[in-house]
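seq as requested:
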Amino acid sequence: MTREHTVRSFDDVLRTVTDDLLRMGRLAHDQLVAATALFGQPVADTAPAILAADQQVDDLDQRIELEVSAIMAMRQPMATDLRALMSCDRIATDLERVADHAKNIAKRASIIAEQGQPIDFTGLRDLADSVRVQLEGILNAIEQGDAASAKTIWGQDEQIDARYEEVFNTHLQTMCQTPNSATSCTQVLFIAKSLERIGDHVTNIAEDLVYWITGRRLSKRETGDLT
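struct tokens:
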């Protein structure tokens, strides 16, 4: 009877941590959507909204860190429970960095708008859409406890890298052909790199989620089932 009560209590506190993690993830996702919506738009004062969302993400990151520390100190979890808490803490760190990159993307998109140089955002939008879909997918996988979907997302990292290389090479060539566009194109390259880094963080989250659920660490050589 006591054991059942203890298990239920841990499940409750873990659900609280997971809910905070998902809330943090949705905020970071919304930041990314808002930032990439600025591509090709006139100058707009988005700083207050972006900074407010970023502060909420930072607050949730700190809250999760405190929650995990408190649970470990009070309950001294073992095995599966410890693995879940460690994974939550690591995922929160990656989500905080996703939000930071989204904030930087918004700032650089605003700089491009202020400079007024014509820029082709087609490749950058495609890259941003791919990264956004991955981020949304991993958040759904966390909510559903879906290791198989997490592994699929983890395996798509090379696709993001390939799209990043295309954007980089295209705008590097534009810089060489039209030197007066160099300043704006440089901002595009920084944005593309931020998007590529968000993809890396999503890959990290997918790997941690698989470990959380299955206890197995993914390897690039792995192609089989998770069971």
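The helical segments are 2-36, 47-75, 79-115, 122-144, 147-154, 157-177, 182-214.
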